[in-house]
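Journal club prep — side note

Before the paper discussion, L.F. wants everyone to see what a predicted structure for a comparable chain looks like in token form. Sequence:
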Amino acid sequence: MEIDRYDRAILQVLQQEGRISNQDLADRVGLSPSPCLRRVRALEDAGVIRDYRARVNEKALGYSLVALIYIAMDAHTPERFEHFEMEIRKLPEVLECLLITGQDADYQLKVIVRDMDAFQELLLNRINRIQGVTGVHSSFVLRRVVERTDVPV
């Protein structure tokens, strides 16, 4: 899909204000409502816009601990990685799982839990029990310095 200046403007606004009305979006990007809506639908159909979500304040729900967990695997085979990834997707505390290079780990997880007891339960009783996990190192987030969800357009 060819992305022009109007599409870029639409994407910038929608990343900041996903609930904006089509009329307001059209006004902001300098289009009339019908062409604006056609462009939004084309961006959705092309997979450029994946979905729309609400961002939730985790502290308001009682989650106070964010940790980064580095996971080393015993074997670097597609089957071992597929099994790990299948199991890690089942854990709702895992916000992000990245297959990485350049570290002594194979995966980096970003997890959120209510407290240290919940972290211990997650790590010892669920993550460490996944077949193939041989090494685990954790770091705790003290403060978020930058937190973005917008992709530069």
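L.F.'s comment for the group: Residues 5-45 form a domain with the Arc Repressor Mutant, subunit A fold (CATH 1.10.10.10). Keep this in mind when we get to the figures.
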